[in-house]
User: Fold histidine kinase from Spinactinospora alkalitolerans.
Amino acid sequence: MGWRATGRVRDAWRRGWDRRHRIADACYALFYFPFVAIGTASPGVGLVKEGLGAPFPESLLAVPALLAVPVLFAIATMYRRTRPVWLLGLSVAVLALFGNIFPITLGIYSYAAWFGDRRRLAAWTGLATVAILLGFWGVPEPETIVSVILLTLVLPLLAGLWAGTRRQLIVNLRERAERLEREQHLMAEHAITAERSRIAREMHDVVAHRVSLMVLHAGGLEVSAADDRSAETAGLIRTTGREALAELREILGVLREDAHGRAPTAPQPMLSDLAGLIGGSRAAGMWVEWSTTGTPRALAAQVERTAYRVVQEALTNAAKHAPGSPVAVRVDYGERDLEAVVTNEPPRPGGNAPRESPPSSGYGLAGLRERVALAGGSLSAGPYPDGAWQVRAILPVVEASPRGGAGIGAEQAGET
Assistant:
């Protein structure tokens, strides 16, 4: 329960931080409320008090002013960031009529801190100065008026200008940091694009060239073969090589991308293509038993593609390391999981093992684990005590939507 309480505290703090300006305005209104009321009720200064000829609390305007002025000031304070004229106009009027110096301090500070129109700020400052002269006209000591101007206008004005300049500087620095971050991302994307293009060139110059030579030699062997078995084998090699070239072209297209930044979206193999994959393995001389359990149905593209790649990699490994051994492929459509299992028996001694083992990168199973993990599943691969080998992948079932939208985001993440 501790993490839930921590999450609620964090959410409450975030909501409070988003409303910090409104909360600050409410605090200002509550803090100034008694001062505004006391300043309005103070006798001796202001045009209204001078005109009455008697202390203000004894006049008939005492009660309405004591109630109206603080309430209007509180309302104007809540809108000081969006409607500054309300607070400034009320502050100047209260200053001239009642000699109340408290509202104008907040009004001048707010306008200087939140608005950049220096001409209007100078105009409001001059108007407030005139209001001070009118409100304190009867004061015999001139230094009192100078002190009031310094305390109620000059100091709040300087503080507001400093706060506004500091906030604008922070905003500019944040925008500059964001701009530099965007430029850094663009430079990284350009570097990635250049590296992908380089890899595509290397693959085209080396791998594609070698596979093309293999296809040409297989075609020549198919034509000049002395017996039908050799011709059939050469034809199978030629067909497999052409399919490898087609898939290699798709990979090169993904690496290079087109001029508009979109990679070609050629159809990728799905579970419905397992029949062709297993048929090709059988034609190559492998003994493959294939079974499907559960209720076959259309799943998300990433799930089906990942299961297909698991079976493909397992069959390739069985052909390399256990030639001539029977292989069992099982695909189980469960309610919550899709299970793909490929099991091969131990290599037969003295079987049809090639004289030279085919090259292997050693990253096939590692790549499968990454692909399965991106799909949200798990992969296990390992030998049995008798030397057999099993590859088993369990993938969470994601039903395909009618419009083909299920699993699109995950599929793109997996392909990336």
